[in-house]
Amino acid sequence: MSKEGFIPYQRTRLSDREMIDRSLTFFNKMDKRRSVREFSDAPIADEVIDNIIRTASTAPSGAHKQPWTFCVVKDPEIKKAIRIAAEKEEKISYEQRMPQDWLDDLAPLGTDWHKPFLEIAPALIVVFKRNYEYLEDRKANNYYVSESVGLATGLLIAAIHNAGLVTLTHTPSPMNFLKEILQRPDNEKPFLLLPVGKPMEGTMVPKLERKPLSEVMVRY
Q1: Under a CB-based contact definition with an 8 Å cutoff, are residues 190 and 126 in contact?
Q2: Per-residue pLDDT tens for 86-107?
Q3: CATH 3.40.109.10 describes domain 36-200
């Protein structure tokens, strides 16, 4: 295999003990991550958001196509428009689309179709997946688009938590209104919406337990 176009891989060499310590430290940090629905309206520096999205963009992607667009919304009027459109769809979902089993599963979380956080949170990050690109004379497909954008979103959520902020994965269905409000091109499709900010003082979250390792991992 030709090495043209390649550069040496650089990594930090760690002892087994250092790897164990680092992995445990990171787990303990991420284990404190929670989905939060009560946000402070305190502003966030653009530099913080920029660094969070830079981190998300380090995710692997099919053929390194990086098939994502992160739209950062701070404009109050646009946030209001998004809330109105999202609540319209959510109200229909809660009252007509969701089967009773789904509603029963959501009940312990205390959620309903009201989404005030879409206006209160100082920033919204709307993640779009890019199914193809426009070249000069043709369309060029991207590969493993949903998988790639899912990986980037996972890193985005970790980066938000690492910065001392909170978020919530919000997926109103259908989400086409996001494309219309933000006037995105036809090669982009909404994937996920994340309000980002600091938690409101006194915020409460559901008392939940994560599955133990024995239920999520199988050794061979």
Answers
A1: yes
A2: 999 999 889 998 899 988 888 8
A3: yes
